[in-house]
């Protein structure tokens, strides 16, 4: 991040903190996408037949900013998450960390998993939609508290595409 951007963001955040408010973010400025790969996954069956399970996992990817300001463009993405599922549907929680050039921000994830069968009746189509809320950041991102939405679309059992957009800084 160049010095002028850093000064501008710092002034913007400082003004917001003094006013005790929320900065509405333009999604065109703060948005991105990444392809994720599950690198570790543990499935704990709760009932016989596999209809009730808790899934814990970790996945990685590289962020591509689709916003005007390049927010963490090319940065590493690490997700640590879990889902409580009944027949492939249920609650989703976890954390996502973006990091690049010594900057880091971690957001809490809160969403819902939905699984439907494709027209062939054999292939599950799984999506996750939800919100993220900043809990930790370093340097400049230590003063910013991002909030936004995300959507995940699985392309295989271990690969997915995620889209996200910031809606505000608190």
Record the SSE blueprint.
Layout (H helix, E strand, L loop, with lengths): L2 H17 L3 E2 L6 E15 L6 E11 L1 E2 L10 E11 L2 E12 L2 E15 L6 E14 L8 E9 L4 E11 L1
Major sheet description? 8 strands, antiparallel, barrel
Q: How many beta-strand segments?
A: 10
Integer count of domains: 1
Overall residue-averaged pLDDT value: 85
Number of helices: 1
The succession of helices and strands, N to C, reads HEEEEEEEEEE
Query: What is the helical fraction, as a range of percent?
Result: 10-25%
Calculate the terminal CA-CA distance, rounded to whole Å: 21 Å
Looking at the structure, the CATH topology is Porin
Q: Judging from the principal axes of the Cα atoms, what is the shape? A: elongated
- Rg to the nearest angstrom? 18 Å
Structural class: mainly beta
CATH class: Mainly Beta
Just name the CATH architecture: Beta Barrel
| Unreliable runs | 1-21
The strand line-up of the biggest sheet is 2-3-5-6-7-8-9-10
Estimated share of beta-strand residues: over 45%
């Amino acid at each position: 991040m160049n010095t002028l951007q850093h000064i501008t963001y710092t002034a913007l955040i400082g003004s917001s903190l003094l006013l005790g408010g929320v900065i509405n973010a333009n999604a065109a400025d703060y948005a991105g996408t990444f392809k994720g790969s599950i690198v570790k996954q543990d499935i704990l069956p709760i009932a016989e037949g596999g209809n009730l399970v808790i899934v814990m996992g970790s996945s990685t990817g590289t962020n591509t900013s689709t916003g005007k300001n390049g927010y963490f463009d090319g940065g590493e993405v690490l997700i640590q998450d879990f889902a409580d599922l009944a027949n492939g549907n249920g609650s989703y929680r976890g954390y996502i960390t973006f990091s690049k050039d010594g900057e880091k921000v971690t957001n809490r994830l809160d969403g819902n998993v939905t699984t439907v069968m494709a027209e062939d009746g054999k292939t599950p189509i799984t999506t996750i939609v939800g919100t993220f809320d900043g809990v930790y950041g370093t340097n400049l991102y230590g003063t910013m508290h991002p909030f936004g939405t995300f959507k995940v679309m699985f392309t295989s059992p271990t690969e997915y595409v995620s889209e996200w957009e910031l809606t505000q800084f608190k």
